[in-house]
Amino acid sequence: MKKSLIFMLVILSVFMMSCGGGDKDAKPSRTFVTIGTGGVTGVYYPTGGAISKIVNKKFEEYNLKVTVESTGGSVFNVNAIMAGDLEFGIVQSDRQSQAYNGEAEWADAGKQDKLRAVFSIHPESVTILAAEDAGINSIMDLKGKTVNIGNPGSGNRGNAIDALENAGINWETDINAEGLKASEAAKMLQDNRIDAYFYTVGHPSGSFKEATAGRRKVKFVSITDIDGLLEKFSYYAKSEIPVEFYPNAQNTENVPTYGVKATLCTSSDVSDDVVYAVTKEVFENFEEFKTLHPAYSTLTKESMLDGLSAPIHDGAMKYFKEVGLK
Ligand code: GLU
After folding, report:
1. Model pLDDT for residues 189-204, shown as the tens digit of each residue
2. Neighbours of 232 (CB within 10 A)
3. Is the CB of 43 under 6 A from ligand 1?
4. Is residue 84 part of a domain?
5. Same structural domain for residues 68 and 99?
6. Residue 311: how many CA atoms within 13 Å on its side-chain side?
7. Which of 55, 39, 114 is nearest to 79 (CA)?
8. Which of 259, 285, 308 is the last residue of a domain?
9. Does ligand 1 lie within 6 Å of residue 48's CB atom?
10. Which residue among 4, 9, 92, 237 is the one 20 to 30 A from 37 at the CA level?
11. Is the CB–ligand 1 distance for residue 154 below 6 Å?
12. Is the pLDDT score of 65 beyond 80?
């Protein structure tokens, strides 16, 4: 009697297990993807949040879950996508171009030919914020100062070096260059540990809100005389820092500089279905997407196809062709 009961229980549990397994097999498997962003006080991090919020609403339809990771920035994101550690990453348009063509940080590793563009997002400006008491009125005044140019995984470090070189400043010998993450820079400026910092970012950003809200008076510094730079690097374009976002900064007028675009990148190894779903949901919910950050105020669907130098991923291209954007 006892033996047959045990036998029945074993049979029953094997049956239940096989039912569970069979049920799982019947559904399309759940896919998790991660978007690499930047520091939490930048615009990439909330942008990853905006994309995931929109796409995850359709979880039932796609069985796709998008999560967001704070990272060191563009260069880190490209490398993590290429290593298969991230499916998506937000990457400056200049970094996308350099990686795909095997330039700058990728000069030794060569062409990152599996890199794919999905769409571009907000404009980003190469921005210098300096302490008022440091006497920095132009980029030339950075000579001899302690300046954060950014961590090596960031996109902005290269932009800072280009801007300094264009002004005839050797970043290794003429300034005391720091390699801090952008998320640390605002506090370091307020704590008198640095005189100024570079950040290539959309506006408004949490970093500059934080840095302009402290006791130490700060101001944005323009980057002008850049015709040669723009001629040399076609991915750069003139831009302006809208100071209305930072009422505590000492500037009264918008500050001229140059900039790039934030772009969403992926790898050719990521499936067309996943990239199609992400692209379609952002574009089909474009009006809602635009409300999720003030840096998106100037976006149009057409503008989100600008600044893409790596080939567009097949999944994104399928959507763009369906709606006549390509
Ligand atoms: N452009 C910066 C970088 O690539 C990140 C800006 C942000 O996080 O919004 O490192």
Report:
1. 999 999 999 999 999 9
2. 11
3. yes
4. yes
5. yes
6. 10
7. 114
8. 259
9. no
10. 237
11. yes
12. yes
For the chain, the residue count is 326
- Mean pLDDT along residues 313-317: 98
The two most distant CA atoms of the chain are separated, in Å, by 94
Last residue of a domain, one of 259, 290, 312: 259
Name 90's Cβ contacts closer than 8 Å, sequence gap at least 6: 35, 36, 37, 38, 44, 47, 48, 74, 77, 121, 262, 263, 264, 265
* Residue 163 maps to a domain: yes
Domain that holds residue 201: 124-259
Which residue do the tokens 């820079």 mark?
A: 185
- Asked if residue 23 belongs to a domain, the reply is no
With a pLDDT cut of 90, the percent of the chain lying above it is 91
Question: What is the DSSP pairing of strand 255-267 with strand 64-69?
Answer: unpaired
Please give the distance, rounded to the nearest whole angstrom, from the Cα atom of residue 45 to the centre of ligand 1: 9
| Same domain assignment for residues 199 and 78 | no
The verdict on the CB of residue 206 being under 6 Å from ligand 1 is no
Q: How much is the pTM? A: 0.92
CATH of the domain at 203: 3.40.190.10
- Mean pLDDT on 49-77: 97
CA distances 18 to 185, 267, 300, Å, are 56, 36, 51
